Amino acid sequence: MSMSKLKSEQTLTVVTLTLGRQTLAIPTRFLREILDPLPVTRVPGAGSQVPGVVNVRGSVVPLADLGQALAIPDVGQDDRRRFLVLDVEVAGEAATVAVAADAVHEVTTIDTQTIEPVPAAAIAWPPEFLSGLYRGTEGFVLLPDLGQIFSNLANRPQAVPL
Amino acid sequence: MMDDMGAIFREEVRDLLESLERGLLDLKARPGDMGLINQVFRDLHTVKGSGAMFGFTELAAFIHEFETVFDRIRSGDLAAGPDILRLALAAKDEIPGLVEGLPDPEGQRAAILQGLRAIMGGEAVAEGQGAGADEAPVAVGEGPSRLWFRLTGAALAMGARPEIVLDELRGLGATQVVADLSDLPPLDRLDVEACAVGWAMEMPAGVTTAQLEEVFLFVDAEWRLEPAVQAAAPVAVSAVAAATGPATGAAAPAAPAGAAAPAARADQNGTTLRVPAERLDALMDSVGELVIVEARLTELARQSRDPALMATAEQITRLAGGLRDATMTMRMVPMRSLVGRFRRLVMDLSDKLGKPVNFSVIGEETELDKTVIEKLADPLVHILRNSIDHGMETPEERAATEKPREGLIELSAVHAGAEVLIRLSDDGRGIDAAKVRAKAVAKGLIAADAVLSDAQTFALIFEPGFSTSEQVTELSGRGVGMDVVRRTIDSLRGSIEIDSKPGRGTTVTLRLPLTLAIIEGLLIEVAGERYTLPMASVQEIVELPPEKAVAEGAAEFLDIRGRFVPFLRLRRLFDCAGEPGAAQNVVIVQSGEVRVGIVVDRIVGTNQTVIKQMSKLHADVRAVSGATILGDGSVALILDVAHLVGMGRASGEAGAQMREMAA
């Protein structure tokens, strides 16, 4: 999702969550539900970005680790961990994907004018996977570009001969 | 209501057109076959009749001329030459357009009819004279009455069937039905379009004129009802027991219009039901959910140790199993439904390219899930096209290599376990492995020094953007298609193999699962993780001999009754932590001709596996073909046996690759 598309609306409603020490915001229109952590079935050879699958109400849904895609260091989990079930587009097709969050905070509406492009100098995050960022109460909040992240994952070359 | 009827008619037409096309194509090979000629005539007649019945008058008129030609062929006045067949096929192609009411801007239809007329020597086409119904309402008395009727004018041509009228009358209580043959003309003057037979019968008291009017509402017929004085016996008497068309007895070996059609219709009315595909899909979804819930219930019942609950759960299991099997059977469609269009394609291509081809089909009755059949059409068309366009030599080239002038293409479909093998083989020039290789190197698909087996080389054909033909023809060779073939087959969880001998021909084998919905699975456990293997591919389960408990570096084999079977350790393959327990099991699985052992920690048991597709995010995980939800709600991955067997075979052939793969 490009900056200009983000800014085509006056406001953007997002759900904020923490991964490691980083706060992220995901537009609520992608959000289907927030669940307590589900048992994860590991998919051998799938790599760390989409390490497994979970059973979401009878559907087998891939579980993605956004922290891996965005290079956010893992600092461990506690009982605030949640799964967000998202309806997104993966390589041109509608798909349901679960992402793990170390904590989910709130649903909030932000003014799109406050969204800034990712500074080119910010080498900490892969810029191609971010739509932008804005200043929250406790530092920067990243807006991950979910379409980019998932499509990139779907098209990645075969990593292992499994 | 009328839309429903229209839909039924369209369905019926589609079937009839398939049969018609098959008939015409077969006629090309056996021009004098009376059976085929009759079949074509019957199909045409039924389309025309039903069309007229549903108000497709333009269609009926169009087919009428077409049919007249076949009537002439039937009577021996004309021979079913290639010109006629070409026109007939072209005419057949116009029928869907007529049914849909599409315009004919280029005057195609008129041209076809013109051609047909020219063949018939410009003779005017005899038309049955349509006469209106001639009714004489008669007051009905208290006692039983006598009914007499005869179909008039073009009633038969318009699709009326005396046996249906008779059935309806029987429904009203008609008894002592006798045929009135008084107006039957001599055989040489018999008009098959007209109904020369009348019927008389006793109607019980209380049957009103209004009821009879209803029976004759859609039929051109004359009828009269009179009080039964005495049995006014008609001239000749023959019981109408078998519901055959009136002319059947007279025009002996050539079964006329109505004869076969009623059987088909009865079949439709009585034993076969058309169901929209979406309803079957919805049913299948529900059955899938049911099977998952059933597994959960069984698990809970087992934990509860309540005998009553366990007994109920067992019953549910049995019922769900039955329901599942019935649903799956409903979705099975024979290959035949695909083959028709292939015949046509082969004929058109071989005409166009001047390469005579004999196309034979084995296993038309082999059934596959309808989803598989639907998706299979395009890949097979691509392969077939390639085979004729690239694989087949010209007759001259063939003659030079002492092959028969006519090429041979064979399509076969057979069941093999839980798979269907579809083979398309030709006796053409084969694939030149060196050429494929050179091309792949030029296109940067492989390194110039890559070591590839023949099978691996041929598989390059399915790479996107690959095309070996030196000249791009209208038909194939644009480099699109073959990669689509592989994508489609992959999406069906199938695999594709090419075998080719230079100068001898090429065989493409598609391996497809019987169904995409529910399979019987063998649940296994490795390092606390559970996986499912399709039961149909499981050959046997043996214990891993203690001396093999620890992995050796080189390729590992088991001695299964004197045969060496390579095996894979799932723990190692899947990078599992920890050490295996004392007793490990080996599940011997088979794909194609190859058997491979899979070492697991524990066999959990068999279960109904409702297959859920893996998302695109896991499309690169080749060892897993899908996932299923177990009774406790957790997800178990379904292992892709073909892929594992491929790996096992590779390890058997190449020795020590396993360590690298596991790393």
Automatic annotation (TrEMBL), chain A:
UniProt cross-references to InterPro entries, sorted A to Z: CheW, CheW-like_dom_sf, CheW-lke_dom
Top-level lineage group: Bacteria
SUPFAM superfamilies listed in its UniProt record: CheW-like
Stretches assigned to the CheW-like domain: 11-155
One Pfam family recorded for the sequence: CheW
Membrane-traversing stretches: none
Protein name as annotated: Chemotaxis protein CheW
